[in-house]
Design goal:
CATH topology of the largest domain: Histidine-containing Protein, Chain: A
Largest sheet: 5 strands, mixed
Shape: elongated
Distance between the termini: 44 Å
CATH class of the largest domain: Alpha Beta
Number of domains: 2
Strand content: 15-25%
Number of helices: 5
CATH architecture of the largest domain: 2-Layer Sandwich
Length: about 160
């Protein structure tokens, strides 16, 4: 019974706070300014990601064209191309970092994309729901320290 009343009081408090926010706080110029700043930051982030995808030729049309021609997508990292990553633990760390990025991304599946790393060369395989997500998966892999090249045999399969 105590848990019921605690839940009831908490529910009432949340309802009152939500009502106050929508009736009073949203009209405040401080709240509107914070919303505008947040929206602008999100837009800049989205624009930066899109610019990287375009620069790496990882947009959906680029992916579709390359898949039609060769059946896979390959991009090479330009920095320090000659450096060799010989240590197997470094390859395992690279794989783990990429898988963690996929796990944190709402659109990509850490379980649906297999990541294999050998000497800094990453191979992605598995299924995604759109060509755009192939580009996104490759971009996240390319931005991982120690990665020299990313090769993708990801396939587009509707969920």
């Amino acid at each position: 019974m105590k848990a019921f009343f605690t839940g009831l009081v908490l529910g009432i408090a949340l309802t009152v706070f939500t009502g106050w926010y929508f009736v009073v706080a949203r009209k405040s110029h401080h709240v509107r300014h914070a919303q505008d700043v947040t929206a602008a930051a999100l837009q800049r982030t989205a624009d930066a990601i899109q610019a990287k995808l375009v620069a790496w030729h990882l947009t959906a049309p680029d992916i579709q064209e390359e898949l039609a021609k060769t059946g896979k997508v390959v991009r090479r990292q330009m920095r320090d191309f000659g450096a060799a990553v010989a240590d197997a633990s470094a390859d395992a760390a690279i794989t783990a970092k990429i898988k963690a990025k996929y796990a944190l991304d709402r659109e990509l599946s850490a379980w649906g994309i297999a990541v294999s790393t050998t000497d800094g060369r990453v191979t992605l395989s598995g299924n995604v729901s759109s060509p755009r997500l192939i580009g996104k998966a490759m971009m996240l892999a390319l931005e991982t320290d120690g990665v020299r090249e990313v090769s993708s045999t990801l396939q587009v399969k509707a969920r």
